[in-house]
Amino acid sequence: MEKSSCGRPSNAAQPSPAPAEIAGLDRRKFIGVGSSALVMAALALSNARSQDIEKVTTAQHDKSMTDPGPENGGLRDISPNGFLPPPTDHGEAPEFWNSFSIAHRRVQPGGWTRQVTVEDFPISKDIAGVNMRLTAGGIRELHWHEAAEWAIMLSGKARITARDLEGRGFVKDVAKDDLWFFPPGVPHSIQGLEPEGCEFLLVFDNGNFSEGNTTLITDWLRHVPREVLAKNWGVADKALDDLYTVPVEGLFIFQKSVPGPLEQEQHQIAGAKGLSPVAFDFPLHSMAPTFKTKSGEVRVVDAQNFPVTTTAMAHVTVKPGGLRELHWHPNANEWQYFIQGKGRMTVFFTAAKARTMDFNAGDVGYVPQTFGHYVENIGNTDLIFLELFKAPRFQDLSLSDWVTHAPEQLIRDHLRISAETLQAIPRDNSTVVPS
Ligand code: MN
Ligand code: MN
């Protein structure tokens, strides 16, 4: 082949086929035409707009995309964008997908737990997630930990207990879409209620957190010399015999009968100081949307409306065909949990690195602080997911808001768009589009 046919834009005088013709060129037709036509087509290609070249390139690479070797068909089918990235993806972007559905499940009488920590998900250094199930009566043992615990009830009902920093007791019943938050060191417990127990998500503000490394009341006391504990409480050694039959690593999750009426337990723990006035729980289910468009709703819960929390959250619903707009978060990394539906997200990692992944219920996603991203509903049902941040306040910046509130000429000089196109971009309320 002549050097001149290699696609350099050296001869602008050659007539260019219409973009539709270029896009329609496929590899077989290309091979079938004569050499002079080949030269013309190559030159025309060089003059075509980049999007047309992209289409031609895709068509020419039909054979390059074939995959005759072994393949995990299940993973391929649930993650079409992960399997074959869109042509705009590029470079070595780190893994930002994980899933509770592939995490080890620790099953005990009374329920189970599974977790996604930095061990399995190296990008997430400041947040770890735990997904837990408790049967009716199943108890997550009285415990505390160094990390703060943010939670959302996913299914069923539970009773939660805690003690505030002034020594006042807290006990409440929580149901689907209720939140709770326990600061570091605050002792607490969770117990499943009738009829079906519960399942919930816990989010900890340290990627190294492990559900296996919390201070369990029985684990601790089982490792205090019996005479010391007896002296601490002023009781006989013998009165503690049964405590020392608890497994050496503590109870963690165990099956008991469901607790009595809530009012009765609230009365029991009130004591001289009364019940805690601290709201460790938050009724997300009855909250009006913070942002609402025709394509979806976003509910923001952070220290402004849930004072006890140091973890900010946005609960996002995107209707079919909708898009959580292109945006970024200036103040924190984003850890995501997908509750329902099918979505895809592209994260732009700067320096031409971008990767797209698909997300289904039970999956976890991650976006580093300040990196641009969107989440698109690519399914037939509402897409529901959580954005979580190790920060007291939720903050996000919108691409549309930015480009519609900057000097018009400056934006048009960068983006090479007409005044009409710029005018069409949403100027406000673009959180979920079309708005
Ligand atoms: Mn806990
Ligand atoms: Mn986001």
Report on the structure:
The strands form 4 sheets. The protein has a 7-stranded antiparallel sheet, with no helix packed on it. A 7-stranded antiparallel sheet has the order 2-3-4-11-6-9-14, with no helix packed on it. It has helices spanning 19-24, 27-32, 35-47, 50-60, 73-78, 80-83, 217-221, 226-233, 262-270, 399-403, 408-415, 419-424, and strands at residues 97-99, 106-108, 111-116, 128-134, 138-144, 149-156, 158-163, 169-174, 178-182, 188-192, 198-204, 215-216, 253-255, 281-283, 291-293, 296-301, 312-318, 323-328, 334-340, 342-348, 354-360, 363-367, 373-377, 383-389, 397-398, 432-433. The protein is elongated and about 85 Å long. Mean pLDDT is 89; it is low at 1-53. A hairpin with a 2-residue loop joins strand 2 and strand 3. With 435 residues, the chain is an alpha+beta fold. It is 20% helix and 31% strand. The chain has 3 domains: 15-78, no CATH class; 102-282, Jelly Rolls (Sandwich), CATH 2.60.120.10; 287-433, Jelly Rolls (Sandwich), CATH 2.60.120.
The CATH topology of the largest domain, please?
A: Jelly Rolls
- Ligand species: manganese (II) ion
CATH-assigned homologous superfamily of the largest domain: Jelly Rolls
Query: Helical element count?
Result: 12
- Point out poorly predicted stretches: 1-53
Terminal-residue CA separation: 52 Å
- Number of β-strand runs: 26
CATH class of the largest domain: Mainly Beta
Query: Overall pLDDT, averaged?
Result: 89
Strand fraction equals 25-35%
Helix content: 10-25%
